[in-house]
Amino acid sequence: MRRKDREITDIAAIDTFLTEEKILRIAFYDDGDIYIVPVNYGFRRESGKCVFYFHGAKAGRKYELAGKSPYVGFETDGRFKMIEGGSACDYSANFQSVTGTGRLSLIEDTEAKRSALDCLMNHQAGEKNWEYTEKMLGAVAVFRLEAEKLSCKAK
Questions:
Q1: Where along the chain do its domains lie?
Q2: Which helix (H) or strand (E) holds 46?
Q3: What pTM was estimated for this model as a whole?
Q4: What's the pLDDT score for residue 3?
């Protein structure tokens, strides 16, 4: 990171920020093309690593690329506030962001799917212990993204 004075390394501060935000952008490499998709997510720490969960259809570009190219980039940002200046070049902004890379996998195990979906729903809706029918679980793709590199910065 070029601006070390803006780097956040405190795990609790990073986790608080990730808990506040709701959208994670996933960047896939697709044979010379970059495909970025925003997803709702849930996250938790597992063995000290940041793990994100999200869901989608069992078809389409995101699903296909997850199997083809599981190494992805990710990003979320928030806490944006414009800082006005006297001229265009004097304007600035406060913000916070988390970026990183990691490995994406598809969750197939039914109980692991339930746990991941509960994590996602708790993060998005603030509630745990949802009911998922076998039909629902069979129809949805649930993804696990384990961060291998992660950095956080704020201004």
A1: 4-154
A2: strand 42-46
A3: 0.91
A4: 64
Q: Tell me the Cα Rg of the chain.
A: 17
Amino acid making up residue 86: G
- The candidate with the shortest Cα–Cα distance to 145, out of 59, 41, 5, is 41
Side-chain-side CA neighbours of residue 7 (13 Å)? 8
DSSP for 75-111?
EEEEEEEEE--SSGGG-EEEEEEEEEEEEEEEE--HH
Q: Are strands 71-83 and 33-40 parallel, antiparallel or unpaired?
A: unpaired
Q: Does the 4-154 domain belong in CATH 3.30.428.10?
A: no
For 31, other C-beta atoms within 10 Å of its C-beta total 7
Query: Using CA atoms, how far apart are residues 67 and 22, in angstroms rounded to an integer?
Result: 24
- Cβ proximity of 106 and 66 under 8 Å: yes
The DSSP secondary-structure symbol of 21 reads -
pLDDT, tens only, 39-84: 999 999 999 999 999 999 999 999 999 999 899 999 999 988 888 8
Structure tokens belonging to residue 42 = 């849930």
CB 43 within 8 A of CB 17: no
In the numeric block, which tokens belong to residue 51? 């793990």
Say if strands 71-83 and 7-8 run parallel, antiparallel, or are unpaired.
unpaired
Please state the φ and ψ torsions of residue 5, each to the nearest 5 degrees.
-70, -15
